Amino acid sequence: MEQLTQFAPIILMFVVVYFFMIRPQMKRAKQEKSFAAELKKGDRIITKSGMHGKILDFSDKNNSVIIETGAGKITFDRSSISMELSKKMNEPVAEKKVLEKK
């Protein structure tokens, strides 16, 4: 029993690290993966490097997406699309549609 009480702080520390660091990171990675899988043609996106564009086509062979920008067509990897920036950019459009319907 004495050995268990000696290791209790270490065990507690691992539990805290898991619930405050590892678990949220795994949850976020899962959300980003589902976001990338749910993309469709015509969606407006922002890449992690800051490039704005609209999705034209997908390439399942390379796991990439072709976007149209002001400079032309560019191919990006699906993982380079920023989930939070793309969602922020598309939120005002959704709110405007709701206001127009009323």
UniProtKB/TrEMBL annotation:
Chain segments annotated as transmembrane: 6-22
Annotated localization: Cell membrane
Major localization class: membrane
Domain of life: Bacteria
Membrane topology annotation: Single-pass membrane protein
GO BP annotations listed: protein transport
GO CC terms of this entry: plasma membrane
Record's keyword terms, sorted: Cell membrane, Membrane, Protein transport, Translocation, Transmembrane, Transmembrane helix, Transport
InterPro entries: Preprotein_translocase_YajC
Pfam families per UniProt: YajC (PF02699)
Record family assignment: Belongs to the YajC family.
Name assigned to this protein: Sec translocon accessory complex subunit YajC
Organism per entry: Gillisia hiemivivida
Gene name as annotated: yajC
